[in-house]
Structure formats: C-alpha cells, structure tokens
Amino acid sequence: MDLQHIDLSKLKVSPANMRNGRKEPDVSDLLPSVRARGILQPLLVRPDGDAYEIVAGRRRYFAAKVVAAEQGSIEPLPCAVMAPGDDAAALEASLIENVARLAPDEMLLFETFVRLTREGKSVAEIASTFGLDEREVKQRLALGNLLPKIREAYRQGDIDSESIRHLTLATKAQQKGWLALFEDPEGFAPTGYHLKQWLFGGQSIATKVALFPLDQYQGPIVADLFGEDAYFADPDQFWTLQNQAIAAKRDALVEAGWSEVVILEPGHSFATWEHVKTPKKKGGKVFITVSPRGEVEVHDGWLTMKEARRNDKRKASGEQGNKAKAQLPMSKGLQNYLELHRHAVARLALLANPGTALRLLIAHAVAPSGHWHVKPEPQTARGDAIRKSVATSPAQQAFQAEREQVAALLDRPDDHGTVAWPSGDSDQTAAAFARLLTLSDDEVLRVAACVMAETVAAGSPVVEAVGIHHRVDARTHWQPDDAFFELVRDRATVNAMLAEIAGKEVADGNVAERAKTQKQIIRDHLAGTNGRTKIEGWLPSLMRFPFQAYGEQPSTIGEASAAIAGLFPASA
After folding, report:
1. β-pairing, 51-56 with 11-13?
2. Cβ(56)–Cβ(81) under 8 Å?
3. I need a surface site. Which of 91, 186, 412, 560 has the fewest CB within 10 A?
4. Domains of the chain, start order
C-alpha cells in the first residue's frame, strides 16, 4: 500500500464505501482543523482509471471540498493507495475504518456484512477480520436479509429490537404478511412476545424440551440467532414425537413398580400442596406435567390428600396392604349409562332364549330378589342424555316391539307400558292365568321370557350372567354415541380405547393430548373422516361380556361381574 498526495479533483467516493449513496455528511466538527492544518490523516483509496476511489475517509473528503470552496484551493490530500479491483478488501477497509472512528448505523452494519458475503467472504473470515465471533456475524446477516421496508422501518425507529429479532425467524411470506398488518392503519401488527407466538401459530417450542432424539424429527427447525434456542417449525410433528416419548417414559415408570403414572393435560400444573409425598413402596404415584411449550416434568412419589387419608384409614383399621386404588371410581353417570345399555342387550338374549328365561323365572321364585314382587325394572336414567340414548337404542326398540306383541297375546291393553303389572289383586291374577291356559306352550314361554326380561334388575349380577352365558355381542344392537363419548372423561380410559381402535403408536403419540382431542380421533376412525382409516365393528371392553374396565377403575358393574365370576362359563 503506497502513500501518495492526490489532488482533490481526482478523488471520488467509492461504491465500496459503506456510506456511499448517503446525503453529504455533517463535517462542521472537522472544518476548524482542516482550515488550520489541512488533511492530516490519510484517506484510504484505490485506483480507478485516472482517478481514485475513496474507500474510507468520506467525511475528510467532504471537509476538504468545503475548505477548497472557501479558500479557492487546498493542498493535495494524503492517501493510502490500495491495490486495484479488490472489492471485498475495500469494503472491509471501509468498515474497519468507520467502526474504529464511529459506530455505524446498526442496519448499515448488517447490510455491509451482506455485501461482504456477496463478495465471497465467509462468515468465519468476516468474524476474524472484525474481531467478532461467528454467532454475532450470523446475527447481523440475519437482520440484513429482512425485507427492505422492514429494515428501513427499523432504521427509523418504528420497530423495536425484540420484534426485529423475531422477524429474522420469519419466512419472506411471513414478513410480507406482517408488513401488511404493520402498514395498515386499521391492522394490528403483533410485536415482541406476541410476534413470536404469531410466527409459530401460538406454539414456539424450543428444541431443548424434546424428550426424543432430534434426528427423529423430520421437519424444519428455525434457529433463534439472538438467543440460545432453536424452534420446531412443525408443532404437530413435535407433539406426536413428544407424546410417544412421554408414553415410553410412562411405561418405563410402571415397569419400575410405580402404582400408577398420571399424565396431566397440557397446561395443568402439579400442586404439591394438594398432594402428600408418598414413597413407591407405600403406593405413591407419578404425576407428569406437560406445558403448552412442550416442557415435561416428572413428579414421583405422591398421592392426593384424599388417597393418603384413605391409606391412613386402612392402616388404622388393620387392613392388609396400604396401596391406594389405582384410579378414582368410575363416574355414576357412565356407570348408569353402561348398566342400562348392558341391561337392554341382555334382555334381548332372554327373549331369544325362553328356556333360559324360564329357568331364571323359577330361580327368582326359589331365591327371591329385590324385584320379584313382581315389578318391572324402572330403567332410571341419570339425565336426559342417557334417557334419550337408551330410548332410541336398537335393543330398547326391539324389546318394546316384542313387549307390545306379548301384551296382545295376553289380550290385555298396554296401558301401563309393561307386561308385568307393578301391582294387582287376585282377580287380575286369575284373569291372567285363564288367558295363559288358552295359549300354547311356546306362547307361554314367549310370555315368560318377556316378563323375565322386563323384571331383571339393571346393573345386577344376573345381567352379567345372562350376557356371559349367551356370549352376548352388544355390537348387534349398540354403537358408541354422543352420550357415551361425553360420559367417558377419564383420560387413561380414553387413551386405552384409542390404542384399541388406532393402535398403540397413535395412542402414545397423543398421550398428553386432552381427552376431547383423543375422543375426536376415535370418532374419526369410526366414521372414516379427517383422513383416518375407517374401523368397523369396534366394541369397547366396557360393553363386552364379561365386563372389563380399562385399568383398575372401580365400578358397580365390575363388582357385579366379579360376584358371578366362575359360576357361568361362556357357552352358547
């Protein structure tokens, strides 16, 4: 690099100068010195034909022009002459000189780095030249790639630094969408934290929260150059993999001997003040919390206060074992729904098998039950939804049709809606007996079957016995309806049903989802909608004979089924 004194008329600002194209600078601070002593610090220039381009020293050049106009002339300016043609070196020199003198406008610095990369400089080379680490260079390059209008708005102070950094994570399409909101007087352009939520569709999920190996994720990952995190751009794929990992963790904890692993719905916190610390050997459970941002926390060795009190009472009463029940009892609404629908399909088995009905009729006479006075089963429903579900079920309607025909056989009006009248006197008994004497044995068996079916108690062990003995398949007259899905609220039960209908992989992939979401997937499979494979003939174990709950959820139906276990081996 040669030092020369070059006439002012042969100098011009180089395109490589980082401030080229700006309006003439304010040089009032330089003029007193230049008037008195001229230009002392050399300008950095490079040859351009017969002239020279100023790479660094633009303000000194303009100060010299002012003094030359005032005094009529000025001495040639001292210049350090670079080799010709090296644009990248010239740009670096301009930037270094300007940074050393006065920190340039932030956006100008970013744009200059972009220009350096276009001249062939790597991130590592730029970082080495300016004493920065590569991350800082990448940060500036990211800002330099923003849409020009966004950069200019930032330069003018209309966009804050947090928002501009979030916008570096945005695609060009997202930047355009945001800019349209920003420029619309009636629009609302999100900023700061809300902007990040807007960019990620409400879910900014950092890669550091993943329980699964990142190489399993096949979607794009967006790096936040201004923080320590990178983010999943495909939240649906993240949640599928994260839920599978949560399910695997649950299975491992159960395998390790914990009495139960409870996965709370996303966003639900674990309140230690509502639980009692309880070790594994005393029946402690594990609670897993999942935040909307994907973070997973495991709280091991706890029981709810209610469960802990129940254990204390057991211990005080001398009961063997001190483990809490694995699950809360089945809701009364769901039990009522299942009892009535199981009752409805079991009654049809009695109608189809009058020999069984006759034997059951005699069994009631030999060993009277609560309903053998005689009175019909009232089928009391806990709510309109259950009442409507049972009344419109194919099993109920088929039984009603048979009951009307049996009433006609007895030549009696169906005013009561029943064959077995709830009360009567000896005259009515004699009249019924007289009518039965006119019927054939087959007709009498038909009446007996209807009476027995009408009076069998819903929810009783008898219903379970009939269902098991005749291998009742509820699918013939029952399908899961809205009332059923509304009443099944236990997430562990819903997830187990999802595994039955869609497979363990799908169930594990949604294990932390809300029960409502998982039930919708089941519905989609049953209907073959929303891209789900249609599943025909699915019957939850809650409606099978013998009855089987999902997990160990206590219920009156389970107790009734257990009461007759072994007495009625399945037979046709």
Report:
1. parallel
2. no
3. 186
4. 2-159 (3.90.1530.30), 204-326 (no CATH), 332-476 (no CATH)
Per-residue model confidence (pLDDT) at position 572: 42
SS3 468: helix
pLDDT over 60 (residue 92): no
d(CA 223, CA 381): 57
Residue 198 pLDDT > 60: yes
| Nearest alpha-carbon partner for 449 in 420, 408, 469 | 420
Name which of 520, 515, 514, 517 is nearest 532 in CA terms. 520
pLDDT surpassing 50 at residue 99: no
pLDDT at position 398 over 50: yes
b/e map of 82-103 (b: 16 or more CB within 10 Å)?
beeeebbbbbbbbbbbbeeeee
CB 223 within 8 A of CB 230: yes
Burial (Cβ within 10 Å: 0-12, 13-18, ≥19) of residue 26: exposed
Better-predicted residue by pLDDT, 173 or 262:
262
Residue type, 217: Y
Pairing of strands 43-48, 2-6: unpaired
First CA to last CA distance, the chain: 105
Other CB atoms within a 10 A radius of the CB of residue 6 amount to 18
> What is the chain's mean pLDDT, rounded?
81
Q: How far is CA 153 from the centre of its chain?
A: 36
Nearest alpha carbon to residue 64 among 22, 17, 18, 12: 12
| Mean pLDDT of all residues in 64-70 | 92
The reported pLDDT for the residue numbered 478 is 93
The SS3 call for residue 560 is helix
Q: Is the pLDDT of residue 110 over 80?
A: no
Segment of 266-275, 367-376, 440-449, 500-509 carrying the highest mean pLDDT = 500-509
Do the beta carbons of residue 543 and residue 478 sit within 8 Å? Answer: yes
Please spell the DSSP secondary structure of 360-429, one letter per residue.
HHHHHHHS--TTTTT-------SSHHHHHHHHTSHHHHHHHHHHHHHHHHTT---TTS-SS-SS--HHHH
Cis amide linkage into residue 47, ω under 30° from 0:
no
CA distance 451 to 125: 94
Instruction: Determine contact, residues 428/380, Cβ cutoff 8 Å.
Output: no
Which 3 state secondary structure label does DSSP give 263?
strand
The torsion defined by the Cα of 121, 126, 128 and 132, in degrees rounded to 10, comes to -160
Amino acid at position 126, single letter? I
pLDDT of 39 over the 60 cut: yes
Any idea which residue has 């020199």 for tokens? 93
User: In angstroms, rounded to a whole number, what is the distance separating the alpha carbons of residues 568 and 559?
Assistant: 15
Please list the helix, strand and coil fractions of the chain in percent, rounded to the nearest 5, in that order.
50, 10, 40
